[in-house]
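Protocol check, entry for the methods section draft. Step 1: assemble the input record (protein sequence plus ligand SMILES). Step 2: submit for complex structure prediction. Step 3: store the structure tokens unaltered in the notebook. Ligand used here: zinc ion. Step 1 record:
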Amino acid sequence: MVKTCKHLQPILEHEFQRGNEIITATTWGDYDVVYFKKKLDSSMIKNNLLSDSIVYKVNRDPHYLLEEFHCEYHKKSIMGPLR
Ligand SMILES: [Zn+2]
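Step 3, stored output:
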């Protein structure tokens, strides 16, 4: 069972409930990353599941087209492909 911080846990659980799967859970630099297989339900997450420490980012590097919910407090992220 993959764990994240209390801020990101609702996002993790929401994605599991949708049937999304984790491809990898790893450490990038100084933070922990959980990467999902399918696109995250980002508009629902942005409207309902964010707390103050979470920042939403989009990475448009052509090699890594991804979106990310990053907890600045715990240095953890949940990521998924942009399409
Ligand atoms: Zn957190």
